[in-house]
Each structure stands twice: as C-alpha cells, then as structure tokens.
Amino acid sequence: MASSTSPISWAGVAVAEDTQLTRAAPSERGDLEIAVRVVQKVARIAAGEVRGVASTGSGLDHLLGHQYPSADATVAGAHASIRVDVAVLWPYPLALIGAQVRDHVRARVNELVGLNVDAVDVTVSKVVLASQPETRRVQ
Questions:
Q1: 59 lies in a domain?
Q2: Using an 8 Å Cβ cutoff, are 124 and 86 in contact?
Q3: How far is Cα 70 from Cα 57, in angstroms, rounded to an integer?
C-alpha cells in the first residue's frame, strides 16, 4: 500500500497521491487560440505518417510550393476544413492512400488540436518511384 505522499505518474509528471488536480472555473481559465499555421502543420505531419505517402521537396521546392505533403486549413471557431496535397509512392493504390490520409488527418487534428474537422479534401498531386538501392554489376 502506497503512502499518501508517494509519487504517481500522471501524463509524464510525478504528483503526490494526495494532490488533487482541480480545474479552474471557466471564467478564470482565459482564452486559447491556436494559429491556423499550426493546424496546417499538424495536418501536414499527419499526412506524412501514412504509409505510402512520400515526403518530397526541400529548399527551393519548399519556397515554390512544391513540397509534399502540404496542407491548407480554414478554421472557424472549433471547426476546421483542411485541404491536403500528397505525393504517393509507386505502386501504392492511390484511392486507398487518399482515404487513409483523410481519416488519419481528421483523427490527428481532432486529437492534437481539439478541433472538429468537418472536411479533409485530399489531392494526390504526384506519384514517386520508391528509391531502390543501386546494384553493382560485375564487368
């Protein structure tokens, strides 16, 4: 049996068992505003977590808007609409990857940002050949 002062772990933070976690009254909490660019970045990262989605572009490509995955979001209150452009590795099925991206982005934005995602529009803008290791031939 643990004593009333032994630490327990709650969300990675050690707290004493006798410590009561209370929430302030709504009028005392203040406001929380999450920038649209944060929603876009969460959506972009979430799209990249889907197997079969390729991460492409860097440097100049990024400046010209040719980086994949990319995301755009519109936020109104607690609701968001998101547009995601992805590059898919060959030979993954495009419709299946698109559906998985849509579902995963919706879930991750809801989970991490706390917004209700009304729509996720996915565009497969590019198909990329998976890089294959070079084979050396004996001559």
A1: yes
A2: yes
A3: 10
Question: Is 7 inside any structural domain?
Answer: no
Q: What is the pLDDT of residues 87-113, one digit of tens each?
A: 999 999 999 999 999 999 999 999 999
Neighbour-count burial for 102-119, b at 16+ CB within 10 Å, e otherwise = bebbbebbeeebebebee
Q: Is residue 60 part of a domain?
A: yes
Q: What is the pLDDT of residues 50-85, one digit of tens each?
A: 999 999 987 776 667 679 999 999 999 999 999 999
Q: Compute the mean pLDDT over every residue in the chain, rounded to the nearest whole number.
A: 83
pLDDT at residue 72, rounded to an integer: 98
- Name the residue range of residue 79's domain: 34-129
pTM of the shown model: 0.73
Pair type for strands 13-16 and 79-90 = unpaired
- Give the CATH number, domain containing residue 71: 3.30.70.1350
What is the DSSP code string of 71-135?
A: EEEEEETTEEEEEEEEEEEETS-HHHHHHHHHHHHHHHHHHHH--EEEEEEEEEEEEEEPP----
> Per the structure, how many domains does the chain have?
1
- Residue 120 located in a structural domain: yes
